[in-house]
Structure formats: C-alpha cells, structure tokens
Amino acid sequence: MNNQSLYILVVEDHQSIAQNIASYMENKGHVLDFSVRGDQGLELALANHYDLVILDLNLPVMDGLEVCKRLREQASHHVSIIMLTARDSIDDKISGFTTGADDYLTKPFSLEELEVRCFALSRRHLLQTNDALTFDQLIIDRKRQQVTRSGKALELHSMGYRILVILAQAYPQVVSRSKLSQKLWGDEPTESDALRSHIYQLRNILDKPFDYPMIKTIHGIGFVLDVKTNE
Amino acid sequence: MNKINQHKRVESKPIKFHSLSRKIVSQFCLFTLFISTVYGMFCFILMYNIEDEFIEREVRHEAEYLQQGYEQSNHWPTPRLSYMQLYFSKDTLPEDIKQRYIDEPKRKEFSGDNGRHYHLLALPKTEGTYLVAEVSEMLIVRPISEGVLKFMLISGLILVLLAFIIAWKLGRKTAMPLKQLADLVNGVAPENIPENFAEQFPNNEIGILAQTLESAMTRINQSLLREKCFTRDVSHELRTPVTIIKNAVEVYRNQQAVNENNPIIDRISRASTQMEQTVSTLLTLAREEHTEAHKKHIKILPLIEQSIIDQNHLINNKPIQVKVEDNCDVEVYAQSGMLTVLLDNLIGNAFQYTQEGKVTIEMQNKILIIADTGPGIDSNISDKVTDPAVKGSQSTGYGFGLSIVKRLCEHQNWSLRLSSEQGTKISITFE
After folding, report:
1. Cα separation, A177 vs A191, whole angstroms
2. Is residue A2 part of a domain?
3. What pLDDT is attached to residue A129?
4. Which helix or strand (DSSP H or E) is residue B156 part of?
5. Mutation site, B232, B247, B285, B301, interface A, largest A CB count within 10 A
6. Which of A41, A128, B14, B141 could form a disulfide with A35 if both were Cys (CB 3.0 to 4.6 A apart)?
7. What local confidence, expressed as pLDDT, does residue B77 receive?
8. Interface contact A174-B247, CB threshold 8 A
C-alpha cells in the first residue's frame, strides 16, 4: 500500500515476537532496531531519531510504562509510541495513554495491522506533509479531499467520500453496518436504506468503471476495502 | 427426527421467614398466661375447700351436740345456731334440695334457689334424721369471689406484661445479633461483605456462628479470587505464544507467492484463531463473571454484526447464507463483554458446523434466536449437550463453546433453549 520506509525501534523481551516483527517488517522494506530491556530501549530511543517505537509493557529492568514516561519527559522531539501488551482492560489502556502512548495494540495482534498502524502514526506525525492514503490503484488525498483511482479523479459525493475514508482508516478490518452508520450519523437512527443507497452510489463511481471492485460486502452486514497487492 | 427442549430457568420463589424474637415473645406470653390461669384455678379450689371444711366442721360439731342432747333427754334440742335446722324425714327437706338428695344420697353440699347454699349431714346414730345448715350468710368466698377474680385477672395481666418485657429483652439479646448477622450476609455478594465482621458479635453461640461464617466467606472470596487470577494469568500467559504462532503464520504467508495455499499453515492459522478466541472468552469471564457492574442497555445489532465479521473465517468458503433479521435492532440489558462471548460462541458454532444453507439470527421480543441448517445435535447427547465437555461425534469445539454459553446464561439469569430438528435452533431469553 505505502512505499514509505519507516525507521522503527522494537522494545520487546520475547525474542520470537521480535523475530516475527523483524521478518515481516524488514521484508516490507522498513528498518528496525531491537532492544530486549526497558532501560536499553530508552537509551536507544533517546539517541536515535526513530519514526516510531513499538514498546512492550512487560520488560525486564524498566517496564514499558516507565520507559514511555521517561521518553516523553526526556526526548527533544515527539516520537510516536505503539504499546504492545497482553493486558487489555480499559484501565490498562487508560494508563497506557496517560503516560503518553499514541496507540495501543493487545496481543495477539496481526502484523498487517501493526504495519498499518505504524503508517497511520507516522502520518499522524507528518500530518502537514503527507495526507494521502494509498491502496494499490486508489489514492485518497485527505487534505484536498480528492480521490483518484488508476490516475483518474473520482467525483464522489461527500457521503461517499466519508464512507471511503472510514473504510480506508479501518483497513484491513471489516466495518459493520452499525459501526459505519454510527460514524456517519452518530447515534441518531436513520432509515436502513440510506446507507445502502450511499454505498450503491459510491460503488457506481469507485468500482464500476474499473477492473475489480474495491468495496467488498461481507454477508450484507459489513464492508471492507479489498486491495489487490501487487507482490 | 428428534426434538429436544431444554429449558433451564431458576424460578426462585422467596421463602417466607418468621422473626425469631417475635416467636420468643409470643411463646413466653402464652406460657405465662397459661401458668397464671392454672394457679388462679388452684387458688379458687383451695379457698372453696377450706371454706367447706370450716362449715362442715361446724355442722359436725352441732350434730354431736344435738345427738348428745337427744341421748340425755330423748328429745331433740333446738340447734344453737339459727341457720341450722333438724329434719326427721327426707320428704320434709327444703324443696330445692329434696329431690337432689334423694337422687344422690351421698352428697353433702347443695346450692339451692335464690343464692341459698346448704350443707347436709345425716346423723350417723339416728337413721332418717338430717341436720341441714343454710350457710349462704356464712360464705366468705362467694361475696369476694368477683374481687378475687378481678385481682387475679389484673395480676395475671401484669405477669404477662412482665413476661413480655423479659421475653422481648431476651429475644433482642439473642435474636438481634442473629438478625444483624442475617442482614449482613443475606443477598450480598461474597466480595462485598466487610472484613472481620465477626468481631462485633458477642462471644457466645452467635459469635461462633459469625466466626464460622466469616471464615467460610473468606475462603469463598479467596477461591473466587484465585479462580479469577488463575483464569486471567493463564489467558495472559497464553497470549504471548498465540501471538507468536499467529505472527509466524503471517510472516510465512507474506514470504510466499500470493496464490500459493499451504494447507498446513491454514490449519495452524485456524487453530491459533480459535485459541485466540478462547483466550479472550476466558478473560472476559474472569473479568465480568462475578460482578454486576457494567450492565447497561446496549444495542445488540452492532454486536451481532461484529461477531459475524469476527467469525466469518469459520464459514471458510462454504455456501452459507447469513441472514440478520431487521428485528435485531433492539436494546438488551447486559454486560457487553458477556454478550460478545455469547454471540461469538453461538454464531461461531453455527458457522463452523453448518456445511451449506443458512444461518439466521433474529430477536423476538427479548428472545435471541440463532438457527442454522447444520446437521443438528446428536440425539443421544442433545439432552446433556450443555454439560461441560460433552461433544458431538464430529465436533472440535462444540462442547466447550456451549458449556460456556450455558454457564454464562446461568450467571446472567438468561434461559437457554435448544431444539435440534433439521438443524440447530438456540434461543436465549434475556431477563
């Protein structure tokens, strides 16, 4: 999807997890540093300009929350932090975010999702310079609210554009009808056909003129962006 | 074809309890009343007996004097006391006692008309001669009997009142701590009972009871906590290896050509997904099972949709149509985690065991119905399918899933109904 290469620090004491991340991410062209101890991780993060730090919570010597806190206090620039943890209660998440984490992934996570989130975070960080989401032929420029597929500009209605952005942000997750309409209209109930007709209109513009449909329906209750990878 | 209906629902009818102290008071008062009455009766009997004895003695004395006078002068002197009179035949006896004396010749005492009262003595040495004393003027008890009765009634009442006070105090002393203890432990979740509550109770049998209860509660709490910690720790421990397996599969697939399917890797992937779900189920149970907290009105449709999306991999390209009826757009009062576990298990089962056809999810009033066109549940195990660790012959996870569902339903007071007739239909009734 993106051809950006990220410089990432992984602080994780489980070697197998670190190795999996390494194999996957390096295969995708990212550059990674590793640390198995909290204090070492902090040292590395302070010494180098990483795009992002993937931080496990349970670490020897200094735990993840402490590393996160000190990194926020001592680092001269903002480095994005994704926390990895086996703890997933709301309290754990809150304590993660309050110490300065930017994102939170609970084990077991998928590597694909980890990569997508890494991109999202690095984009969040580079908000002013890169607002384009790229999925194979599809490019969504969020700054100018323009969508192109295979180089052709698409004339989307505002609702169609919003739906596409929601699907793009959730990728590769499936978004259910309820979640989609909740994001579009909030908790106010709308007619069930409204969403259907918006999706229909979106498909007419996004999918019909091209070689394969990018919006896939799951059992009539969920939608997902279907991206053909050209590997 | 077989049809099985399992309907498990705990209909708890409240047992009526009566108060111990009220019972003590009422028994005490009744007993005092009974004793007072008995003693009052004894008193009256005694008084009448003594009075009779006095009069009788007088009459005997007079009879002796008259007999002596008769023996000396051969004619009967007049009795010295005006209320006594001699009769020389039964027939001449006063009218109001004559007949009765003839009927009962051994009787000595008669009450006559107009308040008259007679004592009769047949003179032993002279047949047919009777000394009759009309003693109504002499009676001591009769005029005061009303007063005595009143006095006894009043003192009886006072005694009952006294008994009431004593019993009430006693009841308070014994029953109050018991009541406190009962209030303390009745209907309260074990983890909400204050620690060391036994100290405030007196050092008697109640104290022993309180102490026993306290230690039992502590043990229950500890084992609940242990179970919770165990489930949580195990799930956490399992998460790391599951992550490793899952990620390794991803790395492997990523390194291979796009369209190359490796069935072994697919199997590993499916197993790790299942394990992931089991772990999250266990964690949810550990977190929410023993608390009433977090219950609120939640829309069930988004959860159903999410669950279908999450379980979609189980359909695995089988020709199955999934139908969510429009009537699912309602609210249910529950914990969302529990609801998710329930839906994941039921929908996951339906997806996994249906080879082709349709899976339908609908809400009728407060009843969630999940029906599939799968093989149904074996007839010989269907009636105990919700027991732990019972599995169908072709099942890999049915037993576990359904027993979790069953346990969950029991916890949440939802009723679970299962009918297996050309496919499986499971209905859950939310309270």
Report:
1. 12
2. no
3. 45
4. helix B141-185
5. B247
6. A41
7. 84
8. no
A111 and A218 belong to one structural domain? no
| pLDDT higher than threshold 50 for residue B115 | yes
In a domain, B51, yes or no: yes
Nearest-CA distance from B261 to chain A in Å? 15
Contact B324 A221 (CB under 8 A): yes
Q: Which of A133, A142, A152 is nearest to A207 (CA)?
A: A152
Q: Which residue, A62, A91, A125, sits at the end of a domain?
A: A125
Q: What are phi and psi of B323, to 5 degrees?
A: -125, 120
Name the residue with tokens 């979609």.
B312
Task: For residue B365, give the DSSP letter.
Answer: T
Task: Report how far residue B202's alpha carbon sits from residue B223's, in angstroms, rounded to the nearest whole number.
Answer: 28
Q: How many CB atoms lie within 10 A of CB B262?
A: 13
To test the contact with chain B by mutation, choose from A178, A183, A187, A218 the residue with the greatest count of B C-beta atoms within 10 A, namely A178
Residue among A20, A87, A222 minimizing CB distance to B251: A20
The CATH number of residue B389's host domain is: 3.30.565.10
Last residue of a domain, one of A104, A125, A146: A125
- Tell me how close the Cα of B256 comes to any Cα of chain A, in angstroms: 10
Q: In degrees rounded to 5, what are phi and psi of residue B418? A: -130, 125
The confidence band for A43, taking pLDDT boundaries of 50, 70 and 90, is very high
**What torsion do the CA atoms of B134, B138, B140, B143 make, to the nearest 10 degrees?**
70
pLDDT tens string B367-387: 899 888 877 766 655 556 555
Residues with Cβ within 8 Å of residue B79, at least 6 apart in sequence: B62, B66, B85, B86, B131
Tell me the whole-structure pTM to 2 decimals.
0.58
CATH label of the domain that carries residue A150: 1.10.10.10
B201: DSSP letter? S
Residue span of the structural domain in which B216 resides: 188-291
ipTM score: 0.70
Angle made by CA atoms A161, A215, A148, in degrees to the nearest 5: 50
Q: Would you say residue B397 has pLDDT above 50?
A: no
| Location of structure tokens 């580079």 | A126
The pairing of beta strand B84-87 with beta strand A222-225: unpaired
Q: How many folded domains does chain A comprise?
A: 2
The amino acid that residue B180 corresponds to is Q
